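Lab manual, section 2.4: Encoding a predicted structure.

Procedure: take the sequence of the chain (506 residues), apply the prediction step described in section 2.3, and record the output as structure tokens. A sample record is shown.
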Amino acid sequence: MSERVHIAIDVGASSGRVMQVRIGGGPPVIEEVHRFDNQPIRLGPDAGDRWSWALDALVREVTDGLGRVEATVDSIGIDTWGCDYGLVDATGALVAPITAYRDDRHHAAFESVRERLGEAHLYTATGTQFQPFNTLYQLATDAAAPDRPLERADRLLMIPDLLANRLCGSTCCERTNASTTQCFDSDADRWHEDLLRSVGVPPELMPSVVAGASPEPLGLLRPEISAATGLPGSVPLLATATHDTASAVAAAPLRSKTDAYISSGTWSLVGVELDQVLASDAARRCNFTNEAGVFGTTRFLRNVSGLWLLQQCQSTWRAAGRDLDWSALVAAAEQSPAFESIIDPDHPDLAAPGDMPERLRARCRLTGEPVPANDAAIVRCIIDSLALRYAACLEELEGVTGRVIERLVVVGGGSRNGLLNRLTSEVTGRPVVVGSAEATALGNALVQHAALEGMRSIDELRTLVKAEHHLEPAGDTLDRERIDAARSRFRRITATIVQPLPEETQ
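Recorded output:
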């Protein structure tokens, strides 16, 4: 196998990186070339009064990062979060601001579209979980907007596709990201045109869809990008797994069908890898999603609000002049009593940017939980609650898929959180295998490598992936009775906001 250098542009909803990954001739070597912040910006009434993404700033940061690469590069790939998009004219210019998924402007469409079309129909058509920020509801909002952005647009491009367009001029969408939109029929491998029309979206607005790991490049670097970065214009941009979770799961050291994964970052994605879409009624009622993976696999998973809660706490404390060290906070949280305060990490009140510590305290007051007394207790509350949510998801995964889950594989930035990993093992009663903290960038590069090396299966790709370490439930840290009592409290807390599906109210 040839040694190759791949550049993984990995942009998340809180930060972005340009990573250099050397693959072949030994274990992959990952080097961070450039890191930058990426936060939604608040636009005023003249620009739609919304949370938005600054595309031009992202392009500048990516270009800056590419300019710092000194190696001879074989290929470049881009991954980002899913669901969000830009509407561009024939020149590639945005016709409207990019709405960030945490904005609430699409919440009304989330309710009205589900009520009008029915959740059972939507789920059967797409296999996609119901979230207010799904592309379908954002598009329905744009279709009804007074300034008619859909009519002024030539093409819809997802976030990685917008960046690729600026770098090489491509105008297509990769399959793993298309599958996050709730507008894509994964079984038929095409946009669901009837569904798009039903919310007022002309199907011709949607880009063509390509599969990741294809050796056919999206394009070569534009001359101006080549000049700005010093990279040759012959460097190809490849269709990697452009959805960040798809890249992370590609790099997860999964070894059998009894493994589940947690891709732990701003979001925690808890799921299993399937050979085909599972859009059963039970899957719908548990709100699992079917998202495309590489080489025809399906990522059957649930979104859990992950390190977002900790990141927002950190932002609030920093704004107050307290730039707290996370390692010290987690160490202090380890000394705090387990399960003293529990919240539902997925509660809608915790979804938007803001004063997260106060919101967490407010949730505790409303549910009758002890209010965290200090910063360490807040961190402990978040970590305890995430572990309890993971356990609940695994229980539902087993019930819906009929699989017995024997191991958990944790990848992504959250895999560095030793307290969360240990607690997850204790609460779920399963060993935790810790994979790469840089799984997203690694998976991005691995899919590029697979394309150039002619790999044709996920198992072949994963021969290049190694687990970093293995945790067994200690058995003497938390007794089972205490864990069971915490899980019972968690069920009570989360049940207080569960609403019946529309079909069940009749």
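Check your result against the sample. The longest helix spans residues 375-401.
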